[in-house]
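Students often ask what a holo structure prediction actually looks like on paper. The answer is less mysterious than it sounds. You provide the chain, you provide the ligand, and the output is a string of discrete structure tokens encoding the 3D arrangement of the protein together with PMV.
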Amino acid sequence: MSRAEPEPPPEGGSGSRVTVEAPSNIALVKYWGARNLEEGIPENRSLSMTLRKCVSRCTVEVLETEREDEIRRISAAGETRPAAEEFAAPVARHLDRIREWAGEEGGFRVATRNSFPTGAGLASSASGFAALTAAATGALGVEAPAEELSVLARRSGSGSAARSLFGGFVEWPRDGGEDGFDPEAPAGPFAGPDHWDLRDVIAVVDPNPKKVSSREGHRRAPTSPHYPTRLRLLRERTREVRRAVLERDMARLAPAVEEETVEMHMVAMTSRPPVWYWAPETMEVLQAVRALRAEGVGACYTLDAGPNVHVLCEGSREEEVAARLSALPAVERLIRDGVGGGPVRSDDHLF
Ligand code: PMV
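The corresponding structure tokens follow.
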């Protein structure tokens, strides 16, 4: 069988493309509310698990001088389209930051593709901006350490992108000490991808983009009367979640992660005006997870800024969990993922 020749890159570019595939991540302790939203400086430390299959691929090429940025999106079906304004504008702003950071002026040609639904609380912006940051700096010929890219990525408007520069179990900020909290420090791993075979069975109940962005959620968080209490309780809970991961202890992890999820969403729901990400179908999945646990199956739920439910369990329990969830009328489909590594360069360019 003869393979089609790869298409030559489009006109106007330098001819040298860099493609990076970066992972999404699911927060075990959430980033919710910022000290400085523009700079992506969080109010609290967050912890996450990097995913393996939910990834964004991004190809970047530096254009000849005087040319403007060209931003394209590739659909799940493989169709390439110029990105709509609401997608292109934050990408263009992030390209400006990268230009400023690198002291460069030229335009970029960018194409991105996600392996999973975009904007539905599945952290597509985290993986997308991590991939964009690594690919654009790479296309400029700058080899920056992951910590520096993490700080650059968190300024994208998606703070959690700071965590998608690393594999395994990640904390942000990672500033060395348990108690010394430096909100401006980059993210970094506290356990590697092979540390614990945790799975994330994502029950997709609504694949459509969310109506209120997480950025708006962060902005409103301090208007909730419960926000100060959340911040006070987080110190101890973060320690508990980190310890549960380090000891691979599902019985310790499950209540702490669920408590954290409900509390973050309670702050969102009691913000002024309120932000509701939960759908009726979300509740059905939460009930099913509680029933599984009552039967002795170690599983717990968590949600980012959307109605879809991430169900965490150990590898030995994945089949059982997936079978139960896929039988629920509320669940449109499952995405079954596990712990992944950090961003990787690829020769499989998108143009
Ligand atoms: O990365 P952002 O700014 O889109 O915010 C992420 C918010 C949550 O997903 C709800 C929590 C988190 O830490 O990922």
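The chain has a mean pLDDT of 93.
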